[in-house]
Amino acid sequence: MAGPMHVLPKNVGWIEVICGPMFSGKTEELIRRLKRAELGQQRVQIFKPSIDRRYGEGQIVSHSEQRLDSTSIERAEELLEHLRPDTQVVGIDEVQFFGADAVRIVERLADRGLRVIVAGLDQDYRGVPFDPMPQLLAVAEYITKELAVCVVCGNPAHRSQRLAADGRRILVGARGAYEARCRACFRPEGDAAPVEAPAQADLPLAAGSAVPEAAR
Ligand code: ADP
Ligand code: MG
Ligand code: ZN
After folding, report:
1. 142-145 and 14-20: which strand pairing?
2. What's the CATH superfamily of 14-146?
């Protein structure tokens, strides 16, 4: 085939991850980036897990009521069925709900030359890293960690406090089920536990014993 196509540089894709606790502005930031891509005449598609039915099926919505049309899918793989051949930018909200499949799919899209922007919770309600966010953060080119405002003390907050007593990892946010908390005000054992200053002696570093040999 003759023509100039083969001398043009390869279209390079990449992965952007926006992470943080609930209320930190992940969806707002995702919407901001996607709207700017549209302003730049890029063809954009947006996906979210259908488990997140908080605001209906057809949109991603921020707590500040910004919204953008989206397609709800059950599994990350369905994204490929809905993907239009001319799409250049893919946005995914609440990506943590897709599990390990998300990493494979997102990498595939970026390898194909798409810009992929994903937003998700990096810690669960106990403060434990929420798979597959650690894996996505590792393979992404660009990562952004947003912080919320601690509702107890006003400091920057990186944790989501569950207010309802419920042991399930996934409890999709009914209004009032979670609030943003900083490290000092967060109670992994539940909100009923009293908020008190952490005792220095309880920290492994102060005790010295939990520091690995090689790190001393
Ligand atoms: P996320 O997607 O991370 O849950 P959103 O983008 O939906 O966050 O919402 C962010 C918005 O939530 C903020 O701009 C603000 O208007 C509102 N908000 C409510 N409570 C808080 C809080 N404790 N800290 C920060 N923002 C909050
Ligand atoms: Mg959000
Ligand atoms: Zn606090």
Report:
1. parallel
2. P-loop containing nucleotide triphosphate hydrolases (3.40.50.300)
pTM: 0.85
Residue bearing the CA closest to ligand 1, atom 27: 23
At residue 22, does pLDDT exceed 70?
Answer: yes
185's tokens:
């005000």
Decide: 118 and 97 in contact? Cβ < 8 Å: no
Encoding tokens for residue 92? Answer: 């995914």
What is the CA(189)–ligand 3 centre distance, in A?
16
Q: Is 147 in the pocket of ligand 1 (CB under 6 A)?
A: no
Q: pLDDT tens, 79-128?
A: 999 999 999 999 999 999 999 999 999 999 999 999 999 999 999 999 99
